[in-house]
Each structure stands twice: as C-alpha cells, then as structure tokens.
Amino acid sequence: MRSKRKLHTNTPSDHIVVGIVRGSRGLRGELRVEVTTEISERFDVSNTLFLDGQAHTIISSKFDRRGVLLKLSDVEDRNQADLCLGLQLSIPETESITSDQGYFHHELIGLGVYENGEYLGAISEIIETGANDVFVINMAGEDDVLIPAIEDVIISVDLELRSMEVDVPIGLGRNRKKPASG
C-alpha cells in the first residue's frame, strides 16, 4: 500500500526545488517526478540532485507526458522509491540560472504584495495556466486573491526588497470579510 504523505520539506533553505516525487514505477526504484523547472537539462544522466537534502546521482532519466522518470543512486527498489513520495528534488541556489527575460518562480514565492502602498499579503503559489501565470496571494483574515501575471496588473517587482506592487483589476476584487453586524 502506498503512502499518502503530504509534500515533505527537508530541502535546505539555500536550495531551489526542481521537482517533486509524485510516485514510483517498476520494481527497480524509478521515481515519477513532477518537474518544477523549465530547465530540462537538470535531469540529465550523471547530474546530481538532492532528495530530501541528500545528494543523489541520476542514473537514468526519461521524460513522458506526466513529468520525468528518474532512477537515482541509493534508491534501489520499489519500497525505497515509495518512501520518497512527496519529497522534493533540489539543487543548490548557487547552480541556478539567472534570466533577463523575467523571473523564476522561486524568486517570486514569498514576495510581499502591495497595492497603492497597502500590504495585501505574500505570494504563496504560482499557477501555470498556459496563457499566463497566476499568482496566489495569501491574505491574512481574507480569502486568497488570484492575480494574473500580466503587465497591466504587475506594476513593479523588486527582488532586493522582496516586494511586488500590483493594481488589482475590478472584478478580481479582494474578498474582504465584512464585520458581523449585530
């Protein structure tokens, strides 16, 4: 019987998550991995990935429609692979690639979001929709707000200050909880 463990986060704080183990395949310990990076070369044979903070060498790698199937050193059989369900695969942040065409998800998660100088909350998740990403803003005491990552909405991003200025469009409105009337 497979474990139903939730996402496990023993990933070192100076690492970037590049995949999440979503299952196993076969008897030899292959891992079915949800890819969270756009750089597929991270999963090339002989590269090193960190699983739950421990270094492993990629022995085999095969992409399919659901992600990538990986065989890692020290994951010998199906039982060991099943124990990896929900674990994160990461790389040291020093191995990350910078972009002058936008931002990577790991750079945006946790940014404080402001509208007209008023703090809304922090980006807790990024949903990829195909057309554009959608930022999930976790707002204390309110429902999460979904903000499309488009030029008309995202006014500015300052990675050094860990902040983003937005203009929430009418209709996406913030779901402010109204005080109870009595």
Describe it for me?
The protein has 182 residues and is mainly beta. It folds into two domains: 15-93, RimM (Elongation Factor Tu (Ef-tu), domain 3, Beta Barrel), CATH 2.40.30.60; 105-166, PRC-barrel domain (SH3 type barrels). 5% of the residues lie in helices and 42% in strands. β7 (112-115) and β8 form a beta hairpin. The longest helix has 5 residues, at 78-82. Mean pLDDT is 82; it is low at 1-8 and 175-182.
Whole-number average pLDDT? 82
What would CATH call the architecture of the largest domain? Beta Barrel
Share of helix among residues?
under 10%
Helical/strand content category? mainly beta
- The total of helices stands at 2
Largest sheet report: 6 strands, antiparallel, barrel
Oligomer: single chain
Q: Which class of the largest domain in CATH terms?
A: Mainly Beta
Q: What's the order of the H and E elements?
A: EEEEEHEHEEEEEE
Strand content: 35-45%
Q: What is the overall shape?
A: elongated
Name a few traits of the molecule.
six-stranded antiparallel barrel, SH3 type barrels, Elongation Factor Tu (Ef-tu), domain 3, 2 helices, 182 residues, disordered C terminus, mainly beta, 2 domains
Question: Can you summarize this structure?
Answer:
With 182 residues, the protein is mainly beta. The protein has helices at 78-82, 105-108, and strands spanning 15-25, 30-35, 48-51, 54-64, 67-72, 88-92, 112-115, 118-128, 133-138, 145-148, 154-158, 163-166.
